[in-house]
């Protein structure tokens, strides 16, 4: 076990190593670490049950300390988180100013902003590795001077809803503005540990093997996206998990509050709603909607309609209203033109209706896995960290075939684009993930039928002859 753990730590460090000349280290390291993880989890089966929880949490912390040892490797989203927190700490609404706006230039820390230079073509340019992550060349407003920043899309206001903004403020309020990425990375580590503890509690309550929780805390996916890249989607995932646990425990009002806060973190958690309406749906919906509204009130008072930020532009930019790229990749295999979004929406409606009808307290984790996993597969977003809200439910439901969705999204995001092969390759990995899900469903159904037949034979009266013809 110790040797495997050292190998995992070394591979993780190699993945996030600053200046690593091997650009494909994240995807290659991820694949290798999943293999190491599977071997480690198998060894955990032999650890006494009373010790396995502490071992998993200790491993999560140790791997997390490796992950925070380098700047974000594959995403600079946490730079925007930091700026939004710094702006709020100074008493300004994060929805009122874009990063290039020089009105708040006195707030700019050197690890987020630096002067740029003009290139031969008259466009701004930045030195390589200026911030430890990707740098964006821009023009300051209104001066037009060249500016370099670690914040992506510096010409648009923030996209993040109020729960995320409250989190950004809370993290940055605790540290000086000069401190870089570490606060959000440590925040991601703490939340990932909290999720691991929730999973251990839920597994113990259902008398399931506790070692399964390592598939969360020790996974390369969590360590890269939740800790090193510090994506706020982790906060939404933890609130979604809490909402499911509260509802399963007979607390619809508290569950609704947690779910409303989750949706007000990143909006996308709303896809989990169909699997959360099996108990007192009116109370649940009322609590969720009221929580969502109350969280928006202070920001609405400060910025008015500006609280929408870049959301409308983001949805258009990312292609959610049209086909193209990898968005709605499976539907694009069988249709073209305006039809992929339409067919995808129809498929999602069917999935949501089926989940709504079938979810009960006894199968809530399975239905959450189906709802979230199939939504991500059908919509096929370009960002793998959206699946942070899927992995906890995979662990609790033990529907391992849905890990294919995570791997597919990792492939789509990390593998370099090689036109004209990128889209066909992306569609192939999506098809492979779909095939894995279909195979898992078929094997599970076959196992259930076989078990039912065996139980039927066992329940036959003693001495009764059971015909097999």
Descriptive overview:
Mean pLDDT is 91; it is low at 465-469. The protein is built from 18 helices and 5 strands. The strands form 2 sheets. The protein has a 3-stranded antiparallel sheet with strand order 1-5-4, with no helix packed on it. It is globular and about 85 Å long. By secondary structure, the protein is mainly alpha-helical. Helix 1 (2-16) runs antiparallel to helix 2. The protein is 59% helix and 3% strand.
Task: Provide a brief overview of the structure.
The chain is mainly alpha-helical and 469 residues long. It contains 18 helices and 5 strands.
SSE blueprint and pairings:
Layout: H1 2-16, H2 25-44, H3 49-67, H4 77-89, E1 113-115, E2 117-118, E3 124-125, E4 136-139, E5 146-149, H5 162-173, H6 182-205, H7 214-217, H8 220-228, H9 233-248, H10 252-266, H11 281-303, H12 311-317, H13 329-334, H14 339-358, H15 364-379, H16 391-397, H17 403-414, H18 422-458
Antiparallel strand pairs: 1-5, 2-3, 4-5
Helix pairs in contact: 1-2, 1-3, 3-6, 3-8, 4-5, 5-10, 6-8, 6-9, 9-10, 10-11, 14-15, 15-16, 17-18
Quickly list its features.
59% helix; three-stranded antiparallel sheet; globular; mainly alpha; 469 residues; 18 helices; disordered C terminus; two-stranded antiparallel ribbon
